[in-house]
Amino acid sequence: MADSAFLKAARGETPQHTPVWFMRQAGRSLPEYLRVREGIAMLDSCMDADLITEITLQPVRRYGVDAAIFYSDIVLPLKAVGVDLEIKPGVGPVIAHPVRTLADVEAIPDLTPEHVPFVTAAVRTLVGELGGTPLIGFAGAPFTVSSYLVEGGPSKEYAKTKALMFGAPEIWQALMTKVAGISAAFLEAQVRAGASAVQLFDSWAGALAPDDYRDYVRPYSAHVLERAGALGVPRIHFGVNSALLLDQMGAAGADVVGVDWRTPLDWAIDRIGPDRGVQGNLDPTLVFAPTEVMLARAAEVIEAGRRAKGHIFNLGHGVIPATDPDQLKRLTEFVQSA
Ligand code: CP3
Asked: Is 11 a catalytic residue?
């Protein structure tokens, strides 16, 4: 396992081939996922160790990717500590009572391993079943998770979140500290049970100007990454629309920085610097192009990645639900043989 291509690249060593996995590789693009999820709410499936195990393994079986990612969601830890929320199909996470006051923040309990026994159980089973394939644990970063808590659901402008950030520093600090603690504890539970790397998803951090990211967000993400790093596993840090944040996302304590498809990979490598690896960054819509077009663009990504300290191939954001699994299979085989 320590010699797996994924872990070698994540540590900045030279792997036998460019390792590949796909963000959101489990889920609606797979018919076998839709079958096991029939009649079961998204978050209920994330609290059932057998279902978590099965759904995590599905894309590994189908594609032979170089890593599994734990099947869960960035809002699952909130649900586990008692926040009233659901994931609405086609919408995303919806929070019944959005956070507005200091009292709202203080009412959210801290996460302990006792809140997530199904996570520990599923990770242990998975590590046995996966053999030499590493399992990536993950959590949502404080800004992205807080944006759902404050907005009450998905958002385009993050106006309420940023109003709190700019206008109510005391509440913001309490909220970010709370969520950072929950995310760190969620990662620790996964790593202690056997996950061999982690990814911190700050999907919506790209909504922030670099100086605001530095002042209001980065210290809390750094706390999460530091606690994961203390357990000795490589850390991937990912955001969307994050070109101007890439240097800071690395410096926050990542071993590998995830790059979205809008950012040229060679430009990103310069920005991130020689001490860290990169992950990414094929445009996820290229799987809808003819296979030879998709593979030609994948070859460019692989070539650009050779200059990095380590390169993990991925899409520039998650798999789009309408994706043809056969295209992802061809893409996986191409990357592994390139
Ligand atoms: O590879 C995997 O599928 C791993 C598991 C995973 C899920 N969500 C499962 C899921 C991971 C890593 C996530 C992270 C996540 N969740 C993020 C960060 C990643 C990113 O895409 O930027 C975010 C922002 C969320 C919040 C969330 N959860 C959204 C926006 C949605 C989509 C809602 C919709 O229906 O359009 C979800 C739901 C979700 N999470 C699904 C899955 C498989 C689909 C739900 C379903 O199948 O009914």
From this structure: no
